[in-house]
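ok so i was messing around last nite and threw this chain in just to see what happens. nothing serious, just curious
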Amino acid sequence: MAPNTESSPWIRRYNPAADARVRLLCLPHAGGSASFYLPLSRELGPGIDVLTVQYPGRQDRRHEPCIDSITGLADALVEEVLPWADRPLVPV
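result:
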């Protein structure tokens, strides 16, 4: 069973694929947002569960302060992603 996506503002699953054997973790480009990966999640599902990251300061998180260091961003992201590592997780 997948973690509850409601508990994290970081992870978006536009087309959840609960029975997929692998998860693809999509990290948006600089200045990008999670919605960039919506078409990809449609194409890959249901065989691959596509998780997209929504960074603080972007789209619906625009009122949150941005994280100003790559180390800080990585540390915060790892904490959010670990619950999703119950099956192979491939970062892109």
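not much to say yet. The chain is about 20% helix and 15% strand.
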